[in-house]
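ok new one. same drill as before - structure tokens go in, u give me an amino acid for every spot. 172 of them this time. try not to just spam alanines like last time pls lmao
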């Protein structure tokens, strides 16, 4: 009987959290008439709840914090994702944000880690190669293009490589 009560309480607790996440929504009072940073911060707090435990969703929230002037809050989200056995796609998403912020060395380390952990990612190889070429390292870029094209002829890899020769970054 006691075990049944504990199980019921746990179920209700979990259900309550799920309902709470689903019910969280942005309200006009959080952004109307507010200074931009204040409005954004209020909406990001809602977005954090809406994101739940999803890594991609949390990274998207972290991106806005990081690039929008709340760098410590964004970094805290990234650190949490990275500390919990991230997938290669998580590494790529965070690396792209660092690249977008102009922090190539941080981006490069995560891109390289993602490629080490998933050495069959031909599209990822071409994307990282494109970033190298855009930064002037043609030898590193073409080595990655070679690896990518030797693995698989894939449209998105080819487009990423072609664009980088014209100064166009891969579409993220």
């Amino acid at each position: 009987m006691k075990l049944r009560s504990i199980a019921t309480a746990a179920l209700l607790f979990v259900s309550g959290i799920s309902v709470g996440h689903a019910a969280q929504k942005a309200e006009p009072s959080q952004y109307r008439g507010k200074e931009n940073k204040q409005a954004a911060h209020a909406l990001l707090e809602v977005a954090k709840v809406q994101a739940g435990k999803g890594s991609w969703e949390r990274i998207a929230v972290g991106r806005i914090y990081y690039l929008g002037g709340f760098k410590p809050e964004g970094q805290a989200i990234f650190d949490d994702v990275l500390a919990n056995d991230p997938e290669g796609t998580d590494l790529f998403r965070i690396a792209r944000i660092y690249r977008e912020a102009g922090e190539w060395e941080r981006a490069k380390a995560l891109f390289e880690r993602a490629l080490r952990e998933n050495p069959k990612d031909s599209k990822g190889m071409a994307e990282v190669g494109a970033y190298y070429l855009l930064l002037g390292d043609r030898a590193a870029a073409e080595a990655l293009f070679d690896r990518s094209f030797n693995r698989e002829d894939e449209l998105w890899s080819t487009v990423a490589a072609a664009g980088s020769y014209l100064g166009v970054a891969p579409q993220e």
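Confidence is low (pLDDT under 50) at residues 1-23. and btw Residues 120-172 form one domain.
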